[in-house]
Description:
Strand order of the largest sheet: 5-4-3-2-1-6-9
Number of strands: 9
Helix content: 25-40%
Mean pLDDT: 96
Distance between the termini: 29 Å
Largest sheet: 7 strands, parallel
Shape: globular
Amino acid sequence: MVNLLQVYADRPRPRSVAVVGNQPLAPDADRAKAIDSCDLVIRVNGFVCDERGAPPTVGTRTHVVVFNRALRATKWVFADYRSKLYLMVEPGRLHWEPENIPGWWPADLGLVPVSNREVTLPLSEAMGLASREEAAWATTGTMAAWIARSSFPGADLVLSGFSFVDDPHQTSWQHAAGDACIVGPEHRIALEGRLLQSWIDAGSARLLR
């Protein structure tokens, strides 16, 4: 997967990687510029991008889309899809999730399944979750952040749109596009927030609020 990520990045060895979650954010030109200036920009599920004429908020560039089967696609998800890498996380395959490609997926668009052995389980271990025994695993956003951190450990990691870092006990959340929803019972977002905060405290990641 690292080789694939390098192909889609602006340079073979990205010096900076942005991972943008779906928390609604206020306009901030500096944040948008910081995201768009990264060599590799990863966005999650039903993400949004800035539009021409709108206040800069989360930038416009996307190299990689990390999504799950419950994706509610926005108009940005499949825009210019030939230039993006689509990574599907499927941690539910450890327990009950089917392996078939979702019926709503565009017939002419490829995707790459993310390995549970290489991504989900090491991430769960880092958070203290026994995902083989219990139907509990990280959100897609944290999986995207883990993919970025583990694939390019020396790169400047820019995080944005992760509400659970500041609000780890929320039981529902808003999205930058679409309806609000409950925090799925399979997620332990307090553990996710603690993991990302540990990266921030260690200076190996920056959180742009």
